[in-house]
Design brief:
Length: 115
């Protein structure tokens, strides 16, 4: 991680407390953790140079793409639950968002708050 960079994570529900304990034990107290619906990202701290999504929604969450800086990139698996999904590189240039297909993958499903 580059100097001065902030790292934020939105782990799945019950994993937030475990993640905090593990990161503290490993010496990473400056990684910020919150429990919220990851579909909407963490808008209060946007814009982000990079976003890494580690669960697969069935479509591109537009609120996440909107939180990328100009030139920002996001890696995200998208596809149906329990089937092959596609890993995408999403790049924002000004108001334009482009998507480059990287490879086939299988990730856990993206779960939503209340879902």
């Amino acid at each position: 991680m580059r100097a001065g960079a902030a790292t934020r994570t939105l782990p799945w529900r019950e994993l937030a407390a475990i993640a905090r304990a593990v990161l503290d034990r490993l010496g990473y107290p400056d990684i910020h953790i919150d429990r919220r619906d990851g579909y909407y990202g963490w808008e209060e701290y946007a814009l982000y140079d990079a976003i890494i999504v580690t669960a697969a929604p069935d479509h591109m969450p537009q609120p996440l793409a909107a939180q990328l800086t100009d030139g920002g990139r996001m890696v995200i698996p998208i596809g149906p639950v329990g089937n092959v999904q596609t890993l995408w590189l999403v790049t924002r240039e000004g108001d334009e968002v482009s998507m480059e297909r990287l490879l086939d993958v299988m990730f856990v499903p993206f779960t939503r708050e209340g879902g």
